[in-house]
Design brief:
Elements (H helix, E strand, L loop, with lengths): L10 E5 L28 H13 L4 E5 L9 H9 L6 E6 L4 H11 L3 E5 L5 H8 L4 H13 L3 E7 L17 H6 L3 E5 L15 H11 L4 E3 L9 E4 L6 E5 L12 E4 L4 E3 L8 E2 L1 H5 L3 H13 L19 H4 L2
Parallel strand pairs: 1-2, 1-10, 2-3, 3-4, 4-5, 5-6, 6-9
Antiparallel strand pairs: 7-8, 8-9, 10-11, 11-12
Helix pairs in contact: 1-2, 2-3
């Protein structure tokens, strides 16, 4: 299905929970957030019903997110249910990786195609400082296990201000050995001004690329297909993996945006920047399937031309990122 600006909307991001087992300083407020009761969350059967209708509208790619999706029990069962929808071509998941090895084999057997693992540092002390947990080893084990299982692995690193790092000289550059040694897509993401992210200095993708070119003159554009997201990729001679830049703030890619979002409580969200949502929870629970389809069509057609992250006063989304689904 095309939106009002002719963009082909074929990608649905689904938040399965607002809960998370980390307390990242740029995402979660210091006092935490009040989690929703499970009764308000869509069941796996309800999520699958929405996916079937979304597939009728042209959705071909599904990404499961949170919060942290793996804190919700039996997630492989949902993957298996979605995999049975003939039109769905790709199922991926975004996770912090801490619980990944506990159910990786079952996820792969159920039909998971790829995984994005959020990781902002390779230093154990800094990891604990940022996230509130001493769990870097678990994440690293999850990355290697995912590669061994044959999954496409992307590592998402948020570009954080220097005060997040505990050691002199530590920065986003400290993540580069991961892409040098492992065949992963290491993506550096500009911090979006949503929730806690509004208060921090923005490091731009352009700054990162400039530093990379200084240090690695062999940096070259990589035009191979890495998925359906907005990252621009680069190859560095001698690196097993690639470097990606996601510049939501300073490299606006809205003209090619192909996604909508489904919240854990059953709200369709056309754009991350704005508070506008379309509630389908009650329609799902009453099995008013045709009305669900019409509401999803309405949400897609209402998708705005572009976000306004560069104009903070125009951002109408006030929820924390953990509640929205990143």
């Amino acid at each position: 299905m095309k939106d009002g600006f002719g963009r082909n909307i074929d990608y649905l991001r689904i938040s399965v929970t607002d809960r998370c087992n980390l307390r990242c300083k740029y995402c979660m407020p210091e006092g935490g957030v009040q989690s929703l009761p499970m009764s308000e969350l869509l069941t796996y059967e309800e999520v699958t019903e929405v996916c079937k209708i979304a597939a009728e509208l042209g959705i071909r790619k599904i990404r499961l997110t949170g919060g942290e999706p793996l804190v919700r029990t039996e997630l492989p069962r949902l993957v298996r249910m979605i995999r049975r929808i003939p039109e769905i071509e790709n199922i991926a998941m975004t996770t912090n990786g801490i619980l990944l090895t506990d159910c990786l084999d079952e996820l792969v057997d159920s039909g998971l195609d790829g995984v994005n693992i959020s990781l902002d540092t390779l230093d154990r002390d800094t990891f604990r400082h940022i996230t509130g947990q001493d769990a870097l080893n678990k994440v690293m084990t999850g990355i290697q296990a995912s590669l061994d299982a044959g999954l496409r692995v992307k590592v998402n690193t948020v570009l954080l201000p220097h005060h997040f790092y505990l050691h002199e000289g530590d920065s986003w550059k400290s993540m580069l050995p991961l892409a040098r040694e492992l065949p992963v897509d290491l993506r550096f993401i500009e911090l979006m001004p949503i929730g806690e992210g509004k208060q921090f200095y923005q490091i731009t993708g352009e700054e990162v690329l400039g530093e990379l070119r200084k240090e690695y003159p062999s940096v070259a554009d990589d035009h191979t297909v890495h998925g359906s997201g907005p990252a621009v990729y680069y190859k560095i001679q001698g690196f097993a993996g690639t470097i990606g830049l996601i510049q939501a703030m300073h490299g606006k890619f809205c003209y090619q945006c192909n996604r909508i979002r489904l919240s854990a409580t059953g709200k369709i969200k056309p754009c991350l920047c704005y508070s506008d949502t379309y509630d389908i929870q009650y329609l799902v629970r009453e099995r008013r399937l045709e009305e669900i389809k019409k509401t999803m069509e309405k949400a897609i057609l209402a998708k705005p031309a572009a976000h306004c992250f560069e104009e903070l006063s125009q951002i109408s989304e006030n929820h924390k990122m953990v509640s929205i689904g990143g």
